[in-house]
Amino acid sequence: MDAHLAGEDEEQARRFGWWPKRSGPEQFRQMLADEEESWRTGGPRRKFAMRVAGELAGGVELRLVRDGLASISYWTFPQFRRRGLATRAARLVADWAFSQFDLELIELAAEEDNLGSRGVARGAGFVETGRRNEDGLLTYERRR
Fold it and tell me: What is the pLDDT of residues 11-38, one digit of tens each?
């Protein structure tokens, strides 16, 4: 649990330049309960863990935005980067999402200067659109 929390906090700070309040065990248990409820009730979020030999390596989140549209984001611990894990996970989650939901389009966003994230997007079958999202990130899309 601590590794998961530290990983999300560290990744959040690295990507967005701010540190969220670190979660404790109760907040983490509530987050898991919320995620379970989202799965059970057909809510808009699905989270997946990436593991290597049982060790948490990162995660992927699918968000059902509106009819026909979803978005994917991911994070990977630094020691697991450059192994193709994020690319494979983003591709597998997108494939799964297209098979499970009536989606026409899945979006993924990447910082312009983050060549690793841009490579993950392309490697997972996403195409750069030339557009930026509300956070100024490049938008990639993958169609059914």
Answer: 555 555 555 566 667 776 777 788 788 8
**Angle 85-88-90 from CA coordinates, rounded to 5°:** 105
Q: pLDDT at position 30, please?
A: 79
Instruction: Note the pLDDT tens digit of each residue in 38-65.
Output: 878 888 888 888 989 988 888 899 999 9
User: Strand, coil or helix: what is 32?
Assistant: helix
SS3 of the chain: helix, strand, coil, percent, to 5? 40, 30, 25
Question: In whole angstroms, what is the distance from residue 63 CA to residue 70 CA?
Answer: 5
Tracing tokens 């409820």 back to the chain, one arrives at 37
Rg (CA), the chain: 15
Q: For domain 44-143, give its CATH number from 3.30.565.10, 1.20.210.10, 3.20.20.70, 3.40.630.30.
A: 3.40.630.30
- 115-123 and 85-100 helices cross at what angle (nearest 10)? 40
